[in-house]
Every structure is written in C-alpha cells, then in structure tokens.
Amino acid sequence: MKFTTILSTLAAATLVSAGVVHDFQSSVSNRVVPGGYIIEYEPNVTHTDSHNRLKAHEVEYKVRNEYNIFNGAAITVKSNHDGQSLASIPGVKNVWPIAVYSLPKSEKSKTKGTDPEVISGHQLTGVDVLHKSYKLTGKGIKIGVIDSGIDYKHPAFAAKGATAGCFGKNCRVTHGWDFVGDDYTGFDFDELNPDADPMDCAGHGTHVAGIIGGNALNIQVSPKPPQPFVGVAPEVTFGAYRVFGCDGSTGSDVVIAAMERAFKDGMDVINMSIEGGSGYKLTPEAVLGEKLIARGMAIAAAAGDNGDGGVWMVSDIGLGDSSSSVASFDATYGRYHGFKYGAVSRPYSSSTAYGQPIDLTPRAIVPIFDENGDLSDGCDSTVYDGIDVTNKIVLVLGDSSRCDAYARGENILDTGAAGILVQTTPYGIASLNGYPDVPMGAIEFQAGEDIIATYKKAPQTTVSFSKTEGDFYVEGGGSPSPFSSFGLDGDLRSKPDLGAPGGNILSTYPLAKGGYTVLSGTSMASPYIAGSHALYMEAKKSKPHGDVIRKAMKNTATISKSYKSKAFASAAKQGSGLVNVLNAILTTTSISPDHIDLLDTTHFKKSVKIQIKNTGKHTQTYTLSHTPADALNSYPDNTFPLSTPIVETDYATVKFSSTKVKIAAGKTVTVTLTFTEPKKGVSSQFPIYSGFVVATPSTKGGIPVHVPYTGMKGDVAKVPIMDRDENIPNIPGGNTGDSFPAMLALGGPDGVSRVSPGFSFRIANPISSKKSKDDSDYTPAVAIRLGSHTPDMTIRVFNASNGKFEGFLYGDNRGAFGMSGRNPTLFDGIPDVTVWLWNGQVVKAESASAKPKLLSSGTYTIVVAAQKKLSKGVYPADFEIYDLGSYHMTIV
Ligand SMILES: *[C@@H]1O[C@H](CO)[C@@H](O)[C@H](O)[C@H]1NC(C)=O
Ligand SMILES: *[C@@H]1O[C@H](CO)[C@@H](O)[C@H](O)[C@H]1NC(C)=O
Ligand SMILES: *[C@@H]1O[C@H](CO)[C@@H](O)[C@H](O)[C@H]1NC(C)=O
C-alpha cells in the first residue's frame, strides 16, 4: 500500500504534512455520494480547528456527521473542492469518498425440521449444549445491530412473561436510533429524516436480530412461527441502529455514526452485515472498527456473498486486524417444493422472478448437452437449435461464470419449452432470480446427475412437481455455503476468519411482512458470531476484548470438509472452520497468532513461531500435527480468476521444532514451524494452498486447538490484475451519455466496439462552459476489470509526441489512482467492468496537493498501470502496464 506524504506550502507558518486521498473503484462500490467525503484529522486536530481550516481554504460545505472516536467528520462539499484539495488542507490525515452500501440481497427459501435447536443450526456449533446444559442465554449482554432497524414489537423479542416486544427500558430492545428515515437511499443528504424510532421496514435487521437472540419457542399469539426456533443468545438486549431506509442502501458516513453511537450506548458487541468491496483494510469503517475493538467492543462482519466469483473476494468491513470476517455454512434442513422423476424425489426452489410452484402437468425432461456431451450452461440460445423441446422441461447447468438465470430463462422463450430446471453447482440448491413468467427451478447437483442418468435410459420419463412443500435434507448441509466469498485479502492475509450457519436460516421478520422468513447469506452468519460473543461473555462473567474471543473461537472451530470432498475445505473459504461456541468456552489452551500468512513464494515465510498457552489448572502435554486442506487453482490458463476454483490436493509440509510439548499451568511455550511450499502446484497458476496446525492435549476429552495458515505458490507480482481474457483494459467506443453501460466496454450487443488508436475525441470544456455538451462530443472512457487487488490502480496520460507524463486521468471528480479490490465476475448478468469517463483533465501527482488541470487539444497516449501486490510501488518496475495507444483530443 502506498502512503504519499507531501509537504504542503499551503500552511503559511509551519510545514504540515498533508493527507492521503483514498479511492474505491470497484464498480460495485463505485457508488459514492456526489460531493460527499469522510475526513479523518490528525490526532491533535479538533473539530473546531478543522472547521477553521476548511473555511480558511474557502471550502463551502455542510456537515453530515461529526465523529469522536474516529477523529473526523463526513461533509458534503458545495464549492469546487474535491478529495484532492481537501486532503491538501493541513491537519487532514485521510480523505475518503462516502461509499453507498446496499443491504445484501438475501436469498429466500423455507425451512423446517423438528428440534428448534437443529432448525437454528445449534447442534453444529455446540450452542444447543450451552442452552440446555449450561443454561447460557446471553443475559446481561448488549448487542448493537447496525442494520435496517428491528421490529421490536415482534413477540419473539418479548421480555420474559410478556407476549409482545417493546422498545425502551425493561424491553429486549433497550436502545436505538433511526439515523435515516424511510425514504433514505444512501445518496441524497436531503432524504435524511432521523428520529428516535428504530422500527424496521426493510426486514433485514429484524431477521439478523432474531438470529442473535430471537426466541420463538413458546409463542401463543399470531403469527406463529412455521417452526419453533431460538436465537443464539435469547436473553441479550439490543441496541437497534437503523442505517437503511426501506429500500436498503446507506452511506458509510451514517454507518460510522451508528458504530460510534452503539459504543456510547454501552453495546458490548456489534455485528455488521453490509456488503463492501475493496479487499483492503483501510476503509474508514475498518479504521474505526479497530479503535472500537481496542476499547473493548467486538465486531463481527459478513465475509460477503460472492462465492461464485472465485478468489480474492472477501468484503472489506471485516478486514480489520481484530474484527471477525464471518463465512457462511449451510444449515442441514430445508423446506422446499418437491419433484419426482423416475426414482428421483428431490426438492427444487422456484425462481423469484417466476415466484410460484411450477405447474403440475407431467412432462418429459430434456437435458441439453454441449458438443463435449457435458450438460450445457444454457447461456447461448443456439444450444436449443435442432432439438425438439416443445412442451418439455429443459435441464441446464447453473454455472454462473458466463451468464445468470435471467439469461437462461430468456434463452428458452422462443423454443417452445414449458420450463427450465437448473442444476446447482457445485452443490446445494441455488436461489435464482430468473426471467419473469418463465417457469424455472433450481435443483441439487446430485438430482441433476440422477435425471441425466434416467433420461439416458428412458428419455420419455416424465417429471411431476408438487404443489405443497416438504422437508428435505439438502445436500451440502454443514459444509461451507457455496455463496460464501473466498479470500485472501489484498495483502495476502488469511481471511475470512471463521464460519457460522448462514445458509437456509429461519428467523424473525417484521410482523407487517409476515413475521418469519428464511434467508441465506453471510449476513445471517455474522449475527450468529455476534450472539456467540454474548454467550462467551456470559460464561466467563467478563467482557474480554473482541480479539480474545475471536482467537478462542478460531482456535476451537470445527475444521470442515466441502460437501462430498474427502479433504478439508480451503482456509480461504472456511477460515478457521465452523464456530464451536461450546469448545471456545471450555478450552484451556490458546494458540497465537490466530492465523498464519505465509504470503507468496517471493516473500515466503518459511519459519513461523507460534505461542501455545495452557490456561488450565494442570500441566498439559500437547501433540502437534498438521491438517492439510484443499489448494485452489484459479488460473489454469486465464487472467481473470475462475468463478469456481479447481480444487487440488497439493499440500505444504510443516516441521515442528518439537512435536510434543509439555506446558505447566498458566505457562506459554513457543514452537517454531518450518513450512515448505506444496510440490505439485504450478507457480504460474498461483494456487492458494492452506491448512491447519493443530495442538492436541493428551488428556482424554481435551479440546484440540488449531491455527489456519494460507499461502500462494508463485510470485504475487505476476498474479494477473487486469482481465486480458476480455481484452481489457480498453477504450470503449459508442455514444456519450451520463452513464456508460459496461457492456459497451465489452464490445456489447449493438456493434458498439472499442476504438482504435488514432481515434479523435471531441470534449466539451468541463471548466469554461462556453459550449454545452452535444451528441457529437465523444467522451473518452477507459474500461478496466480487475481480477485481483491492486494497491494502486492508475490511468496515466502522456504527450504522444515527446512521451512526457502529463498526469493521471481525472474523472468522476477524482484522479485515477488508489487502491482497488477486484471486480465481481458478473453484474446483472454481464461481466462487471469499471469505466472511467475522461473530461480532458489530469492531476499531476498521486498526491493531495495535486489539482486537476485541463489539457490542451493534442495527441495523448493513455496507459493503464496497476501496482503489483506487496510491491513498493516504483513506476514502472512495480506495475502491470498496458499502453492503450495514442488518441487525438480536441477541447471545444
Ligand atoms: C499538530 O501536530 C503537528 C505536527 O506535530 C504540528 O505541526 C501542528 O501544529 C499541530 N496542530 C495543532 C492544531 O496543534
Ligand atoms: C449484524 O448482522 C446483520 C446481518 O447481516 C447486519 O444486517 C447488521 O447490520 C449487523 N449489525 C451490525 C451492528 O453491524
Ligand atoms: C507535446 O509535445 C510536443 C513536442 O515537444 C509539443 O510540440 C506539444 O505542444 C506537446 N503537446 C501538448 C498538448 O502539450
């Protein structure tokens, strides 16, 4: 990561170092509040100092929020100042654009089973034992839920003896605030309408609160739950901090204000399940998160639901050094509609766009095969050419690397098919969006295999769908959820941290929306960890710092296998494993650190020391061992990571300075581990390997503890950053417009293409508005698509005739530089691309004091250069560089 510090001449009397502008460029998080900035001051600068300085620099602004623990403020700037000029003001340490977050689109389905503890996944995590045998309920612990609010009237949040919940003293929801109001969408300051009532209208926050501490065991009033269930800590109290309007977007400025308020209200734990994007740990939320943890709070954040995007995808909110990035595991039971085909009777999940069960007429199924005889992904309508599917149900593979369910549905429109079944890959039942009015259902992977086998023997076999729902054990229960995002982070640190049940989770929903629902997502897993913190604190009768609890949970988590795999799932997917709260509480051993980052071959940490502490009352002997896990190969011959990494059985080896250690009560022993990289993995394919180092106590029934390690074979400087498979970066052609559809960058559907070097652009002068924009102007744009992180994503402009560096392209009110996470694989069904529109300006330096400057008409060379990971950032040696050629630009 690059920190540029400049001596500014703006401070008249003293020389003061100026701040750093941060940029978030991934197109998902590309959504920023126009003119909105979060400013962090130097530690010795007060709010008053800062206002004086902003005024002295003639910044006209409105304060959106002022913070205290985070020494800074969020402002909307009305004058012509941008992030660069704000950072140049003395006393400013960091400037971030205000990012807009969305509530994750949780996947709906329905669940049922028998035992409420099983319904809630507690038999997988030891929480059932803590409830039944230890009578732990989280009593006395306060959990802040920063989300869409809580429907505090819900009977599942009733205080003991009451039949309905309430808000205030003696209620389960004791504290709260609505920072935003119903109409807030995250972008517009004027939509804010805060008040004291944190009632939930979106639903997400109520669901999350139910997972933490809802109690639907003995509800006598309507609506009754479809199945009794119980949250992890059914006697915690809540602070409900509402940061989402009814439609579910929020600004990072509001999230920071809510985090501070939760702290001031005395919350012990906060959990955040907001999707982020950049993959680096320097967002303002992560910065504040670290400060709050240092003051005793625990933070659990969702790892993200981009599991179908492949590696390098974890969300950034959980990336602080001590916060927990939480992965999801699937619960065991699901309630679904069923279908019968030959001997196969299995569940299916109807697409949300279709929204109803598939009709009951028995019909033949036609699996659609590609030229290799494999099930086709159905992404091209031509796969149906020459096949009679009239009135039949087609079966295709639900691989998400080329298209989504919308496209699959659209592709059968003209075929006469009666509907489409989609085989979930790699396993489980996907939740599909789908195409309106096209009957569509997701089925388990194995169900798809069985259908194909039956079809090959008896193609006339018909399928019948059930009208009612039934209970199914769903394949993959207890394994990491396919949707859960893979790490590592941009510094090759081991993330996510650990997992919790998050797939197929029944919980509370606002009464106005039916009272209960089943959702899936890492958003459902992070509150599970928040509730687990409460049980831990209650059991220990103390409130250890969040990183202490994280360590106990990581050390004792259950190392898990991927569904049907013999090997353990990668630590880049499951973190340390599925949380076992019982063991985290009972263990008398800890291992530090709680993750080992071996980095890449170039920076390989061959020798690593771990500390094993015996916190028990007796001397204990431990045996040390190594449990290897899957290696993930994402680059067999491509530049953008595979959406489903190839799993390789290729292991590192570990040598221990001693394999048996005897540790007296209360004492710590250091053990040196010597690692050797896996043998088979091909360095040029950058496999991410991982495993666990385990210390097993010799006492019968002693709880083993472990620490995950992750590493990458190969030179991280050579990991492709830009997606060359899509011929990106490039300069897209086509009409100018306010928004530039990403598909244009990909040579999209209407013959729109990239422009070639030598092309002439005409740009309306962005500063003197002598001429207004018209249709004959061509706004140049640069399309980028990052397959992995870069500490510094730059677009550089050079004078084409003498090669002089003119500056960094300036677009969207910021210079084209700064750290960036990768693009997701698809966005709305097409490859996700970030497009920088260029208005003819550049900034001279990657620094705070640089002001945008309009170039004169002329011929310029455009170069995209992304800094290699873990490098110092020296240009050009440390950059992946693409010369896009020279273009003529006329400013009119
Ligand atoms: C803050 O500290 C810097 C560097 O130590 C110093 O130059 C500056 O004057 C201080 N500012 C205030 C407001 O005290
Ligand atoms: C807790 O997790 C839920 C689920 O994602 C999330 O919506 C909520 O914002 C989190 N709470 C906090 C305090 O961040
Ligand atoms: C680019 O360099 C050439 C040769 O030095 C010079 O004549 C020209 O004015 C420069 N163009 C611009 C736009 O500065």
Automatic annotation (TrEMBL):
Residue ranges annotated for the Peptidase S8/S53 domain, each copy included: 138-563
Single GO MF descriptor: serine-type endopeptidase activity
Cited InterPro entries: C5a/SBT2-like_Fn3, Peptidase_S8/S53_dom, Peptidase_S8/S53_dom_sf, Peptidase_S8_Asp-AS, Peptidase_S8_His-AS, Peptidase_S8_Ser-AS, Peptidase_S8_subtilisin-like, Peptidase_S8_subtilisin-rel
UniProt entry tagged with the keyword Protease: yes
GO biological process assignments: proteolysis
Active-site feature positions: 147 (charge relay system), 204 (charge relay system), 523 (charge relay system)
Record has Amino-acid biosynthesis as a keyword: no
Top-level taxon: Eukaryota
The C5a peptidase/Subtilisin-like protease SBT2-like Fn3-like domain, residue ranges: 598-710
Gene Ontology cellular component list: extracellular space; membrane
Signal peptide boundaries: 1-18
Keywords (A to Z) from UniProt: Hydrolase, Protease, Serine protease, Signal
Protein name: Uncharacterized protein
